[in-house]
Give the backbone structure.
Amino acid sequence: LACGLAPGAWSLVAARVAQGAAAAAMLPQVLATIQAATSGGRRARAMSLYGATAGLSMVAGQILGGVLVAADIAGTGWRSVFLVNVPVVVVGLVLAARFVPETRSQRPEPVDGPGTVLLALSLLTLLAPLTEGRAAGWPLWTWLSLAAFPGVAVAFYTVERRADRAGRTPLVPPSLFALASLRRGLVLMVPFSIGFSGFMFVIAVALQSGEHMDPVPAGLALAPMAVAFLFVSLAGPRLIARYGSRVVSAGSVIQGIGIALIALAAWRDWPHLDFGGLLPGVAVAGAGQALQLPNVLRLVMSEVPAGRAGVGSGVMVTTQQSALALGVATLGTLFLSLVPHQGVRDALIVTLLVQLGLVVLTGLLSLRLPRTVR
């Protein structure tokens, strides 16, 4: 609500910070509740549905955002993108109070203050310069921030390892990474999320600035991706029960084919790339993503004990969200830097080829996942 009513840029930024902090406090609890309140087949179905919902909402949000901005409901313009959350939250509060079981710990651990501060500084020194550097002209502070990142990250790991060895519960326990499924799944999630968010940002900018599409047609061009993601992800539990983590490898191959088809369509049809030209590529890419994201999320949490569900889900969500932000910062910066020199079409194709490389890396990493998923 504060974002939608913000009178200026800085008040919007402050409200966004509060919104992000609240989301970070809320989202990991969804996974933690699933982990603590379910087991066996019910947990497998719940985790698969969570992954399907997460992936579908990221695509659907892009479409809905364009529709809301173009509709300009009651003259709200961009504000409607934030105000639409208010009734959703009200409904969510009612449903949560009625249906979500209580999973509060009988012996809650104290907050890891030093770890929290150092992790925040680590993410800030990495993401802030990458996100704002190009627009600001890469001033001195961006390079100093990037130079500080390795040192802050090492300090964070040292503090967490010391707390873990002392028997306390740090924010990110290094001992948690002894679980092969969690460790390897998180490593795979980084290139996948970078490519996912980078693609969503770049394709929206390319279609609106290069093809001069309005927000609604640009958003609807991705609708086949959402539809394919929904139906393929629903088949995920049966597929992974039968074929194990090979489903994730197959998803990488299928997504790679989809990205290649999109790049081919851009090379062939530009500047007349339309819904029909994008349809095969985005549908195939969405199907491939649906075989990866829900199953990787489920695999990461598959061996985490119920008592550490909150920590495990927090680590996973932080990794995913950081990689999503990194994708917009890196692939977005690459695309926008290439546009003045090569034009929108060639910049888009180069960025898609870089994403294709990330998809190949994701496929190679998937070969190291445990073959069976508990």
Notes: The mean pLDDT is 86. Residues 113-170 form one domain. The chain has two domains: 9-101+179-366, 113-170. The longest helix spans residues 309-366.
